[in-house]
Structures are given as structure tokens and as C-alpha cells.
Amino acid sequence: MIEPPAPETRTNRRGRRSRQEILDAAARVMSVRGYAGTSMSALSKETGLPKSAFYHHFESKAGLLSAVMEQGAHAFFAAMRETHRNPPEDGTPHERLRWYLRRTGDVMENGEEFLRLLLVLVMSREAAEAPEALQTVISVREEGRAYMAHMIRSSFAGAGEETADQVANALAAFGMAGYDGAFVALQSEGGGRPVSEWMDQLADALAALGEAIVAGGADAC
Amino acid sequence: MIEPPAPETRTNRRGRRSRQEILDAAARVMSVRGYAGTSMSALSKETGLPKSAFYHHFESKAGLLSAVMEQGAHAFFAAMRETHRNPPEDGTPHERLRWYLRRTGDVMENGEEFLRLLLVLVMSREAAEAPEALQTVISVREEGRAYMAHMIRSSFAGAGEETADQVANALAAFGMAGYDGAFVALQSEGGGRPVSEWMDQLADALAALGEAIVAGGADAC
Amino acid sequence: MIEPPAPETRTNRRGRRSRQEILDAAARVMSVRGYAGTSMSALSKETGLPKSAFYHHFESKAGLLSAVMEQGAHAFFAAMRETHRNPPEDGTPHERLRWYLRRTGDVMENGEEFLRLLLVLVMSREAAEAPEALQTVISVREEGRAYMAHMIRSSFAGAGEETADQVANALAAFGMAGYDGAFVALQSEGGGRPVSEWMDQLADALAALGEAIVAGGADAC
Amino acid sequence: MIEPPAPETRTNRRGRRSRQEILDAAARVMSVRGYAGTSMSALSKETGLPKSAFYHHFESKAGLLSAVMEQGAHAFFAAMRETHRNPPEDGTPHERLRWYLRRTGDVMENGEEFLRLLLVLVMSREAAEAPEALQTVISVREEGRAYMAHMIRSSFAGAGEETADQVANALAAFGMAGYDGAFVALQSEGGGRPVSEWMDQLADALAALGEAIVAGGADAC
DNA sequence: AATGAATGAGCATTCATTCAT
DNA sequence: CATGAATGAATGCTCATTCAT
After folding, report:
1. Three-class SS of A153-219
2. Of A175, A172, A165, which is closest to residue A214 (Cα–Cα)?
3. C176 in D contact zone (CB under 8 Å)
4. H helices within chain B, ranges in order?
């Protein structure tokens, strides 16, 4: 005789679901109120789960943050790779950069929650108690820079591998700063301007700076 | 023989001084731990003043934040105007932009505390209880953009007033994003790269984008 | 070998009991020191429970007061109805009033705590933050008056229903004032005089006033 | 040549005036919020005087309460004696009691503030720190009882001095309870019924009880 | 796996009071 | 006589966390 799980069963086997609900709520609330500004009680109210459930699934508040960041990072870069699956195989660097960055802007819009929390953690040390989360932050920044370098390198592939590398190294940090700055502006000034416009302008700038490097050799940093 | 007032006198009658000490400590600590992450007790320990003294000088924690932001904003823009007192009267837009932005970078280094707190407030809503502080944040962003426009306009003055205006309007937001993004990078990756390099690269990008606008008319946004 | 639960076990799982302990302590202390004069810390010391336990069981200090008043009112009127279960079915109004009021006096002695807190809340607005408690106060006064009317009406039942009603309406408020005034005197002058004497005298007065109404029709208010 | 006091002089010589302002504000606020519920800060805001001024004029919060009570008691009994200056020299005890109590009701209406604070102090021990004030409370109750006895004795003077004394002793406490109870009712139920009606009914009751004593000798307590 | 009760440290804020000017 | 600044204890309340069931 089969005992089908009641649709609103109070028993166990909701483990995985609860865990994910908690992670989602934590990402949502912490990205808005910051880590210190988010209390376990608030998350308990938000999810309807008792506070003790949080400690069943996570070691501590800091551990919860770490898990949130890890999952967010994973999703973010997965989305990035996914959206860039079929890059253009020719075209000017400018065109290619536009293609890359436009898509990158789409990912920004979807990963707003994660990026907001990431930047808050970057700026303030309010989560000093969560070293794992801080480690994730550092990795994400690093990987982000690497990804930006990859996009630039690909876009300048036509200029030769060595040159493309040189350009990518020179501009990756600046590209990422443009990305971060655009995100800050979007958070601050709201929808005054669509993301795509920010990304196009960034592509324009990177293209111009890159061409200068290609043309001049080592004259620009 | 003169009896100088003991430098560490425990008297009252030091109203203004206490107030400023509190403001300084609050700016320092809040910029590091965020608003929610900064407790009045922590500030009390930091300053040596009892908690009640804080409520003598400020209405509440939110009121203290507002005062911190106001004073920080005032100092920031004062430093900006001061450092740009004798702008170059000729030279290429590129040279002029470099001059402006280099100095702007110096102000960034001195105003790190203020800018960090500002960005944290921009990103998270953790200070929703301090509407005056949020208002200051908005004003600062606005004024910052206007200042960036002013620098670009001045740099392109040689191309005619109307063109300079057009360039400034088209690039001010991007310039500010570059500034913000560089600040984020500095907070995150630390001193891997001096501010001046960031600012030079930003000047290069703005110059290139600006020249394109001057050359092409309305082809770039 | 049986391990009986230690009678003073420090376990949790005693939700109801803790709640009741808190209510009792609050009733006791608040009735003596007033609402504003009673601190949560004092109640914490009194009960041995940590302050946070209070907020687990009640929303706030005001909510605690409301619960105290509600439970007190419930117990008070239950005791009243209980003590008057078998009223005399004949006798003069004077005799019957004495029977009723004597028993009412007993309830006063047992409900001293509740009545003291009730009167403090009636007199001062010190619990303005607890509107539910104030509502209870109003209900209790109303119900008290109705109960006094019921006692008078029953006592004068021999004079016909209409007359009894008339007498009850005319004297209920005065009867209640006598009850309140006697309680005040007992609080103030202490045991100079037993409650029964106060109640007898009140019965005498109500009987005399009532007879006058019965005799004269509408000549007394 | 007369030096008129400048209407808004900032200098001294406002001592007496400040003191009285403080006393008035304290009586007003404490009678509404209770002693514990009234903070020195609230009184400071209410009067516009700095908190330190309070300690210039009074020793402490408890001392202030004592002064408030003392002044209130003084005024209350002065008003009582004043309003009863020309008592009726003949008439039935009933008529005379009505005359006395009606006027007593007027004093109640004017002394509401004082009586409210008095009763709160009687009921709760929230001012245990102010023994002088508590002493005043006791004295006032005592003097009140004596005054009630005086009114009854005068009203029954026609029955002979000894009998009048007997009646006064037997009824003074009850009379005062009726007075207190009426005051409680007025605070609680508000203006549902004018004071004069309460006082008339009390006079009726006292007259009836008194006549019974006069008639029966020692049969009533 | 899930939960209601408990816990004590810590929170922002207000308290009565003091004191130098 | 008047006052603005200071002070530390206490206020009501929330925090992250634990634990028996």
C-alpha cells in the first residue's frame, strides 16, 4: 500500500525545499538591507520557517551568507557562460565587444540581487565574521576580471594572439570598472537609461582604447 | 605663571568639540562597518564619550548619519573645487582631461571614507530610517554628475561652446561610472594599481569618445 | 529504573507555565507600582525568567498589560458570579442587599490586585500606549455597573419588575461609587475597618434610597 | 521712580515665577501620566526651562512631587473652607447636607488635577521614593475625613451635640467613600452625569442613614 | 526534519542627576 | 539665577543562538 505524500505534509522530506527557500529569502533581503541589517528573525518572518530551521540547514548567520554568495556566484557565471555560448567569429573588435557586453548587461539585470550584495560586501567590512563569504567575494572579483579579459581577447583575436593578450591585460580592469560603475549608476539613478546603452558606451570606449594599443604598441598602459 | 587648560580636561564646556569628535568617529566607523553594522556602543567606546552624549548632540542614530553625510558631502565638494582652482587654459582635451581627473583622483584618495559610506548607502537600503541621509546621497550623486560634466565641458571648450556641451552631456554619466568603478576596484583589489593610472585611463577613454563625437556629430549617444 | 523529571527542571517545554508565571508576576507588581513604574527588568528578576522570554510570550509591555487586565477581568467576574450562585429567594430588599454586597466584599478582598491596577488605569493615562488594556478597563466598568444593577434589581424584585428596574437604574451608579470608594479607603487607611462593615453600610444606604423610590415614585433621582 | 520688570527680561528675579511654572506643569502632567510616568525631560519640554532649573528649585524629582502635593493640598482645603464660609444656620439635616455637599462638588471639579494625583498615589506605591509626598497623602486623607465629619456634625447640630457627634463619627468614612467613588466615576465615565447629582444622592444617603441613627440610638454602626 | 521555548548579550534610547560657567 | 554639556545606570526591546522534544 502506497502512502502518497500529502501535498501539505508536515513531516520531513521538505529538507531541500526549505534550504532553498531560506537561501532565496536571504539573498533577497540581504541584498537590500545588507548583511548586518538583516536579522534572522526577519528571514524567519519572510519564509514562515522557524528560526531553528535556519540552524538546521546552516551553521550560523555567517554560514548562511557564505552559502548565499556561493550559490549566487555560481549562478552568475553560469549565466555569463550560457549567454556567450555562440560568440561571433568575425567582425571588428568594436562589433564583437558590443555583442559581448550587451549580453553581459542582460546578465547584470538578472543578477542584480547578487551583484548588489557583492558590492556591499566589497565596500564595507560589515561581514568580517564571514571569512568564507569574503573569500567568495575575492574569487568572484578575480573571475570577473578574467572573464572581462576573455571577452576583450576574443574581440581582438584578429590582431594576433599576442596583441590580443596585451590589449586584454591592459583593459580588463578598466572594463570591469565600467561594468561596476554602470551597475552603481543603475542602482542609484534607477532606470534613467537602459543597461544596453551603458554597455554600448563601454564597448565604444574599450574598442577605442584597444585600437590605440594595437596601433601604437606599448604607449598606453 | 600661566595655567594652561589641561589638554585632557574632563570639564564640560566643550560642546562643539565633542560634537565633532562624534561626527569623525561615526564617519570612520560607519564607512567601514556600514550603518546597520555600527552600534552606538561601538562609537561610544571609540570616542570615550558616554552614549547619552550622542543624544545630546544628535537626535538619533539616523540623525547622526544624516549629519555625517552632510558634512562629508560638504568637505568632498569643497576639496574638489579647491583642487581645480587654476585649470589649464589651453592644451588638447586629452591633456586637459588628464589634468582634471588626476586631481579628482587625489580627492578620491582623501575622501575615501566618505565615498565608501556613500556607495554603501547607494547600494543597500539599510539606512531607510534616515531619509535625510538618503536625500543627501541623491544630491551628492547629482552634483557629482554635474561636476563631471563641468570637467568635460571645460576640457572640450576649444571645440566651441555648443559642441562642448554636447560632449559633456553625452559623457558625464559614463565618466562618473568610471570614477565609481575605479573606486570600487581600489576598495576591492587594494593598491594593485595607483589611482592616477585609473584616472589616466579614464581620461584616455573620455578623450577618445569625445573626439569621436566632435568629429561625427550625432553618431554616438 | 525510572528517571523522574526534576521538579525544578530548567528545560524548555513549559510554555504555558512560563506564560502564566509572567502574567501573575506582572499583575502583582503592576498593581503595586503602576504600569509606568514597573520595569520589564523588575519582572524579569521577579520571575527569574530572562527579559527575552517576555517578548516570546507577549508582544510588548503594553501587550503584557492588556493580557493581565483581560485575565484579571475574567477571573473577577467569574468569582462574582460564583459567589452569587444561590441568592436568597425572599426577605426584605435590605436583607437581600446585605447578602449580595457582603459576598461582593469577599470578592473585593480576593481581587484586590486586579482592582488596584484597574483603578490606577482609570485615574491616570499612564498606559496610553496600551489601548487594548484601556478598552478592557472600560468594559469592566460597564460590566461592573450592570452587575450592581442586577443585584439591586434582584433585591427589589418583590416590589414588581418595573419598580425594581427603576430602582436599579437609579442606584446602580451610586452603588458602584460606594464600592469603589470603599476600596479606595481600604487601600488608603488599611484594615481600620473590615470590608464587611463597608458593605453593610452601603447596603443600608441603597436600601434606604431604594425604599424612598418605591414609596415616592419619581421623587428621587 | 518705578522700575517696571522688563516683560521678557533674561536676567534673574524670575526665580519665584519659574518655581511656580514648574509646580504647575508638574501637577498637570503628573496628574495625567502618574509620577513614574512623568519624566523630568517631559516637564522641561513642557515648561521650556532647562532640566537643571528643576534642580535649582527642588531637590529631586521626589522633592518636586512633595512640593506639588503640599501646594495642592493647601489649595484644596483653602477652597473647601472658602466655599463653606456661610453655612445655613437652620433647615433639616437633609437640606443642610445638600448645601454642604453641593459646594464640595464644586471644589471637586476645580481640584480635579490634585485629586487625581492624590488617588493615584493612594492606590499605587509608585512614589515610594517620595516619603514626604506620601505623608502629605495620609494627612490629606485624614483631614478630608475630619472635614466630612465636620459637615455631617454641622448638619445634624439640631439633634444635640452628642448625637451629632455620634452621627458624624458613624458616617464620615462612608461619606468620604461616596465622595471618592463619585470622583472615580467622573474620571472613568466622564460627564455622563453632573457632579451635583452625585453629591445630591450622597446627601440623600447620608441623611437617611443619619436619621436612622438619630431615631434608633446605637443600632447602626 | 522540524519546531516552540528559552537564553543572555547587545541594541537604540531615555532616565535622573551633576556641574562648570 | 540660569544653562548647556556631561554622565552612567536603566529603559523597552531585538539579537544570534541552543536545545529538548
Report:
1. HHHCHHHCHHHHHHHHHHHHHHHHHHHHHHHHHHHHHCCCCCHHHHHHHHHHHHHHHHHHHHHHCCC
2. A165
3. yes
4. 15-33, 40-47, 51-57, 61-83, 93-110, 112-123, 131-155, 161-189, 195-216
Contact D124, C28 (CB under 8 A): no
> Quick check: C93 and C148 in contact, CB under 8 A?
no
Residue of B nearest to A140 (CA): B188
The secondary structure of residue D125, as a DSSP letter, is -
Chain A contact partners (≥3 CB pairs within 8 A): B
Query: Chain B, 71-100: which CBs lie within 7 Å of strand F?
Result: none
Residue C143: its pLDDT value, please?
97
Provide, as residue numbers in chain B, all residues whose Cβ is less than 8 Å from the Cβ of A33.
36, 124-126, 128
| Interatomic distance A131 CA / F17 C1' (Å) | 19
d(CA A181, CA B205): 14
Closest approach of A3 to chain B, Cα-based (Å): 47
Nucleotide nearest to B10 (CA to C1'): F6
Q: How far apart are CA C36 and CA D93, in angstroms?
A: 45
CA distance D46 to D26: 9
**Closest-lying nucleotide for D37 based on CA to C1':** E15
Kindly list the structural domains of chain D, giving each domain's residue range(s) and its CATH number in brackets, ordered by start. 60-216 (1.10.357.10)
Does C15 contact strand F, using a CB cutoff of 7 Å? Answer: no
Cα of D130 to nearest chain C Cα, Å: 13
Q: Judge residue A214's burial from the number of C-beta atoms within 10 Å of its C-beta, 0-12 exposed, 13-18 middle, 19 or more buried.
A: middle
Burial of D169 from C-beta contacts in 10 A (0-12 / 13-18 / 19+) = middle
Q: What is the pLDDT of residue D218?
A: 46
Say if residues A220 and A213 touch (Cβ distance below 8 Å).
Answer: yes
> What's the pLDDT tens digit per position in B181-216?
999 999 998 878 999 999 999 999 999 999 999 998
C-alpha cell at C76: 473577577
Low-confidence ranges of chain A (pLDDT < 70): 1-15, 217-221
Q: At what angle do helices C131-155 and C112-123 cross, to 10 degrees?
A: 120
Q: Identify the chains in contact with B, defined as 3+ C-beta pairs within 8 A.
A: A
pLDDT of residue D1: 40
In C, residues 46-105, which contact D (CB 8 Å cutoff)?
Answer: none
CB neighbours of residue C23 within 10 Å: 19
The grid cell for C17 is: 507555565
At residue C190, the pLDDT reads 79
What does the longest C-alpha to C-alpha distance in chain D come to?
73
Whether A180 contacts chain B with CB within 8 A: yes
Distance of C1' in E7 from CA in A69, Å: 30
Q: For residues C119 and C109, give the distance between their C-alpha atoms in angstroms, rounded to a whole number.
A: 15
Residue B208, C-alpha cell as written in the block: 577618445
Considering only residues 52-111 of chain C, list those whose CB is below 7 Å from strand E: 52-53, 56-57
Cβ count near C85 (within 10 Å)? 7
Q: Which pTM value belongs to this model? A: 0.89
Q: By the 8 A CB rule, do B43 and B60 touch? A: no
Question: Strand E and chain B: which residues 61-100 have CB closer than 7 Å?
Answer: 61-62
**pLDDT score for C189:** 87
**Cα–Cα distance measured from residue B145 to residue B167, given in angstroms and rounded to the nearest whole number:** 14
CA-CA-CA-CA torsion sign (C57, C63, C66, C70): negative
Percent of chain B at pLDDT exceeding 90: 85
Residue C220: the pLDDT is: 42
Residue C18 CA to E3 C1' — how many Å? 18
Burial grade of C197 (CB within 10 A; 0-12, 13-18, 19 or more): middle
Distance B39 CA to F18 C1' (A): 25
Which residue matches cell numbers 495620609? D138
